[in-house]
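User: Hey, quick favor. My workstation is busy. Could you predict this chain's structure for me?
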Amino acid sequence: MRTYDILLFDLDGTLTDSAPGVYNGFCAALGSLGMEIPTFEDFKKCMGPPLSYSFRTFFGLEGERLEAATKTYLTYAAAKGYTENSLIPGVEEALRRLNAAGYTLAVASTKAQPQVESVIRRFGLEPYFRLLAGSKDEVGRSSKADVLRYIIDALPIPDVSRALMIGDRFYDVEGARAWGIETLGVLYGYGTAEELGEAGAIHLSATPAELADFLGA
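Assistant: No problem, here it is.
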């Protein structure tokens, strides 16, 4: 197994279960435009990609309607959505083990930067991470690859072969591959073993503890 020094964690579905709050945010945004509300099952495809991508691709929003939906969603997320979130069981213990083993940890999420910071603070996870990185559309940081580019420069990561992305959707694998970074897929999030395997994840972990075991922590 390749030796890694730096672990880059996705947030939604990898560290926390944010689906209830994200779903309610989408319902608020789509409802404000008089659109049909998706069932929770149909909505699951929205967990993973950037917010603007989901609104465009799955709901056909563009221009002023996209801007309005995004504003409503972010308002809901800041006021209430981040509280409709729970820490995935076993995650904090896994982070503690990985820190103790000497890994450098960072969060790499396409959730908006303020939301990433709010969620990590809510669960008291700041001490485990060197850097928290989310999307910032105003500076052109929206996709997973964009977020990872920022981390590579900011952390910095001089040798990407020493970094490992950890996530639950194929978006994580594809974004990491853009920079030559391998991905470990987690099966307790919103993706499937088939999805992650086909995308090219190097290993699949069923629990946070198994993830830490695999990395020798």
